[in-house]
Amino acid sequence: MNTQSPLSATESLGVMLSLVRAELVRSMEDELAASGLDLSYTQFLILKKLAKLGPMSASNLARTVELDGGAMTRQLDQLERKDYLRRCPHEQDRRALRIELTEAGAAQSQQLTDCSARVLEAAQRSLSETERNQLHDYLTRVLHALRDKN
Amino acid sequence: MNTQSPLSATESLGVMLSLVRAELVRSMEDELAASGLDLSYTQFLILKKLAKLGPMSASNLARTVELDGGAMTRQLDQLERKDYLRRCPHEQDRRALRIELTEAGAAQSQQLTDCSARVLEAAQRSLSETERNQLHDYLTRVLHALRDKN
DNA sequence: GCCATATATTTGCCTTGACAAATAAACTTA
DNA sequence: TAAGTTTATTTGTCAAGGCAAATATATGGC
């Protein structure tokens, strides 16, 4: 199922967000696969954050990508098995881990960035620079409106 | 987990979409619960479509709310158990079902509309009418760009 | 130092949705 | 009209994420 529907003239915001997000995730995973990377969208986000921000604890990483802590544990299991990252002991906190990229993981950080850039560019290709900024701005404002109830 | 993170200055489009959608779904479900309706977001969408478009087949409904056919079967099971809808035989097509609201289901259609309106209004309260239209337009254009690959 | 509380990680349980296979019925076409 | 193809519904299987409980450790107040 999940055949493309013609999409009625005015879908509500919630539906639009779901559709766009789902399509973006699919495109991203296709692009990753096409680049020879065996990564889910979530795993892509995790590696990208690590590459950008450097080693950090698992819970920190979970907060950064807005993922549940339990789900993070399991994603880390997979990424460790694929040898993209390592769990090291945390220097200051013996409860925590220091998650760091392996050499193999670091080696692909450029590819991740490239995939991401290509997909985002394709997705927004009909939007001008100004419109892209507006889109981002509007989404940010909606998010804040929802979080700061009232 | 899933504590609110401060949300860095420029999250990528994919992340923003996920965040906004998740928050919108949560708000919607809170609002439904506050109105005494025991419905998930998906169930809300199904009932709302039925109320708006009238009886239709399950697969039609699935396409309309962009839900997998198998998932639809199970949601219909739940909604039927809650006595919000009925599976009737389809007049012209013996393979298909005619899904229709029960009296109880129809009685709540106004509440669904109200909940939805309140949440959408709250979510977009900082956007002008023009901006809301732009947001919708941009999302539509991004969706088309992703679907019509290149 | 001791206790209460908060945080980090892991694990189990549950629900959801995607995907695929099975079955039944409709449609196409030769 | 018979064969092949498409569509509708259901069910099984799977991976993912949320939530809660368990365990270990840190932290703050006394």
List key phrases describing it.
two-stranded antiparallel sheet; 150 residues; disordered N terminus; DNA-binding; 7 helices; 2 strands; homodimer; mainly alpha
Characterise this structure:
Two copies of one chain form a homodimer. With 150 residues, chain A is mostly helical. Helices cover 63% and strands 7% of the residues of chain A. The first copy, chain A, contains seven helices and two strands. The first copy, chain A, has a two-stranded antiparallel sheet. In chain A, α1 crosses α6 (109-123) and α3 crosses α4. The termini of chain A are far apart. Chains A and B meet through α1, α3, α4, α6 and α7 of A and α1, α3, α4, α6 and α7 of B. Chain B binds a DNA duplex (30 and 30 nucleotides) through α3 and α4.
Map the helices and strands.
2 copies of one chain form a homodimer.
Chain A: H1 13-34, H2 41-53, H3 58-64, H4 69-81, E1 85-89, E2 97-101, H5 103-107, H6 109-123, H7 129-147
Antiparallel strand pairs in A: 1-2
Helix pairs in contact in A: 1-6, 3-4
The structure holds a DNA duplex (30 and 30 nucleotides).
In short:
Chain A is 63% helix and 7% strand. The first copy, chain A, has 150 residues and is mostly helical.
